[in-house]
Amino acid sequence: MTFDIAVIGTGAGGATVARELSKKGLKVLILEKGKRHMGGTSVNHIKITPLDLKLDLSSKNKEKYNFLGFPAELMHIEDVGGTTPVSLANACYACSTCYSNSATKQFSIHDIDLFKELIEASTDLKVSSFHRDLMGPATRKIVEAGENLGYFMEPMPKFIDFSKCNNCGLCIGGCKLDAKWDATHFINEALDNGATLISDFKVTKILHDNKKVTGVEGIFGDKIKTFEVKTVILAAGALNTPEILKNSEIKEKVGEGLFCDLFITVGGFLKDANFNKEIMMGVKSEFGPYFLAPHFSNQIVSLLENKGYNANSEDVLGIMVKIADEANGKINNDKSIEKPLTERDLKLLKEGYEKSIEILVEMGVDPSSIVSTSIRGAHPGGTAAIGKVVDNNLETEIKGLFIADASVIPQAPGRPPILTITALAKRLAKNISKKFGDKNGK
Ligand SMILES: Cc1cc2nc3c(=O)[nH]c(=O)nc-3n(C[C@H](O)[C@H](O)[C@H](O)COP(=O)(O)OP(=O)(O)OC[C@H]3O[C@@H](n4cnc5c(N)ncnc54)[C@H](O)[C@@H]3O)c2cc1C
């Protein structure tokens, strides 16, 4: 069988391109390293990668800011659907109240107008606001406490079909009711449109001749397998795309410029708060390059136990501080990740930490119980950025090789990026389908 296009990876970027191009009648081959879980992917599949922030874990600073006392980590998933099945369904993009360096602005510098595609992506993902009457009592109290302190809290846009949602608060476990959008929805549509999916296929390199794509090579079972194809969309995610590019002889600036939207969760003890059973991040309070949002983390429960509290999951409140960190990280050739925490990023985390404590105390949390998780990242990006590794059509120096995942985003959005990645992938699909011509006239 011959294919017009090979798409590598089935996350936010890859699934979108596969869906859009198969809808246009193109013969799409989808190659995915991970497995297809018919019952849905879940939190058990999250891969945790150490993130070297160059912290001095023994420093005195950690007595006041205990998040400086733990090693940092980065999360992602390698299965059909990519990292999207564990998302909290937060759907952000630039708007008047958001950080000026967010979604649309950083692309317009590269002459990319994403606004139309962001609207289309919002429609496809059925984004709607998280209504106040769906908020649990603890989230409402966080809103009340924040607003008493002058921290305006706005409802978080969500890609949840609330007519199917039972408010279980288990979005991160992969939605059993299919109420939350994830990229497997787009993959299923692509398959209905005639695309071919091969899972458990690890792409190792893109084959090319005279700087033009000729095919894809990878490992299937224990065998090396190749496909001949002239157009390839690489969407293996910001942690894996660099390795495939380097194996394919594209090396300059590849793997540099990593950002992660670093975050901490600050939490404390409040008996029977029952916050763990609510939809997380139902609201957000914006502070330019960072925002605060209600967030439950199991790490807080363990930290409270270590402090001598007899805490169950029901007895914990938490607030996430998420920052747009500097794009200063690097994926090394041995796949280790370095990302020195800059003074600026540390200042933002500290500011958010202090505000979170104010809110928790206002809610009645015992101040001496307050702790913070380690610094984590869940939005890796920037490792094959526009203007450095791809041009503004998302094409690399090898003709016919395009990238459509978070690695092309130049700067940390500091906001959940799925909508932005989907919009970029939609824009790319439009350009590619124009190139092929609309085969079935749709
Ligand atoms: C716990 C958690 C919660 C999150 N919540 C939100 C949220 O609420 N809203 C939001 O916008 N974002 C959220 N995110 C972030 C979001 O999920 C990611 O930013 C997004 O999925 C990245 O999309 P991507 O296409 O770049 O990569 P991914 O979605 O990671 O997809 C990459 C795909 O490529 C595949 N792949 C990798 N290597 C190869 C290879 N060699 N060959 C073939 N295939 C390969 C992988 O298996 C994977 O399927 C969350 C992330 C986490 C961890």
Briefly summarize what is shown.
With 442 residues, the protein is an alpha+beta fold. It has helices spanning 12-23, 61-64, 103-108, 115-124, 137-148, 183-192, 241-247, 298-306, 343-362, 418-436, and strands at 5-8, 28-31, 47-51, 72-76, 128-129, 154-155, 157-158, 196-198, 201-209, 212-220, 223-228, 231-234, 256-258, 263-269, 283-287, 290-294, 316-323, 329-331, 337-338, 371-372, 376-377, 401-403.
Task: Describe the protein in words.
The protein is an alpha+beta fold. The protein folds into two domains: 1-41 and 78-89 and 92-126 and 175-257 and 381-442, FAD/NAD(P)-binding domain (3-Layer(bba) Sandwich); 43-76 and 129-158 and 262-377, Cholesterol Oxidase, domain 2, CATH 3.30.410. It has ten helices and 22 strands. The protein has a six-stranded antiparallel beta sheet with strand order 6-15-16-17-14-20, sandwiched between helices. Strands 8-2-1-12-22 form a five-stranded parallel beta sheet, covered by helices on one side. A hairpin with a 2-residue loop joins strand 9 (201-209) and strand 10. Helix 4 (115-124) packs across helix 10 (418-436). The longest helix is centred in the last third of the chain and has 20 residues, at 343-362. The radius of gyration is 22 Å and the shape is globular. The relative contact order is 0.21. The model has no long low-confidence stretch (mean pLDDT 93). The chain binds flavin-adenine dinucleotide (FAD). Flavin-adenine dinucleotide (FAD) binds at residues 8-14, 31-34, 75-76, 78-79, 82-84, 86-90, 172, 202-203, 235-238, 240, 244, 378-379, 405-406, 416-418, 421.
